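Need residues for this backbone.
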């Protein structure tokens, strides 16, 4: 078996089970060497905590990239999550050009919006920069809200397949080679993912769980990345990631006062079994 190395670029929230503290263990559990490039360090994530610390690491990224280039360090895949500014997006685009091996998988999770709204720190300029980054991706993993912002489409909570197919067509028009659209529900009590690969659409549905957890998008994208780098097809990777995320939500539901994240660690063994 080939031993692959993936780079993930996103922030470190020291407490809160999201971003790098999710990506590093999950991708590692998939048997992939996981290198990290932190875009910022926070004492906790920003959803529900107050008074958190924040240190922006944007200025460190060019020197880190230059050192990797000097050492000839390259990656079989690069996966990006939450990026804090348009400047960081531009630097990540340079990483794609300078630090990805030929044929490397470029995976972009445009983590910037949910429930019809952008995250508070972002604006139209950020969205436009993210459009360009998605255009350089082999795989883009938005939720419906993010897809709407990326494609200048009206956000709807009630929709049909034509609406979803239209979103994916517009995402592909940005330049993204493959699209994995999450949170797609065509019937009550069910949700799932639509995978657009080589011009073909496929849909994987599973039960909709009423309890939501912070960081499940990061869990999903990390499990997708790890599965893909292990040699699974995009559809298989999307399915594994969905099933694993469901297991994480179920595990969290049984815990008292665990509001800040999902208990992904206790079901990592199930993810490993799914990959066999």
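Answer:
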């Amino acid at each position: 078996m080939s031993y692959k190395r993936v780079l993930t670029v996103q922030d470190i929230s020291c407490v809160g089970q999201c971003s790098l503290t999710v990506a590093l263990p999950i991708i590692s559990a998939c048997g992939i060497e996981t290198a990290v490039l932190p875009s910022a360090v926070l004492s906790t994530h920003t959803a529900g905590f107050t008074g958190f610390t924040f240190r922006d690491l944007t200025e460190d990224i060019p020197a880190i990239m230059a050192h990797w280039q000097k050492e000839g360090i390259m990656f079989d895949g690069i996966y990006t999550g939450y990026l804090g500014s348009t400047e960081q997006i531009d630097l990540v685009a340079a990483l794609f050009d300078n630090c990805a091996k030929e044929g490397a998988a470029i995976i972009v999770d445009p983590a910037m919006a949910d429930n019809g709204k952008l995250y508070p720190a972002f604006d139209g300029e950020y969205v436009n920069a993210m459009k360009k980054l998605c255009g350089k991706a082999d795989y883009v993993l938005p939720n419906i809200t993010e897809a709407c912002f990326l494609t200048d489409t009206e956000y709807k909570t009630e929709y049909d397949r034509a609406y979803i197919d239209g979103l994916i067509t517009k995402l592909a028009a940005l330049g993204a080679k493959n699209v994995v659209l999450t949170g797609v529900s065509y019937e009550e009590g069910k949700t799932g993912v639509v995978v657009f690969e080589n011009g073909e659409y496929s849909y994987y549905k599973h039960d909709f769980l009423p309890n939501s957890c912070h960081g499940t998008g990061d869990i999903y994208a990390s499990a997708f990345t790890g599965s893909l780098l292990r040699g699974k097809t995009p559809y298989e990777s999307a399915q594994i990631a969905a099933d694993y995320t469901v297991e994480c939500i179920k595990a969290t539901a049984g815990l008292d006062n665990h509001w800040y994240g999902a208990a992904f660690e206790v079901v990592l063994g199930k993810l490993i079994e799914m990959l066999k």
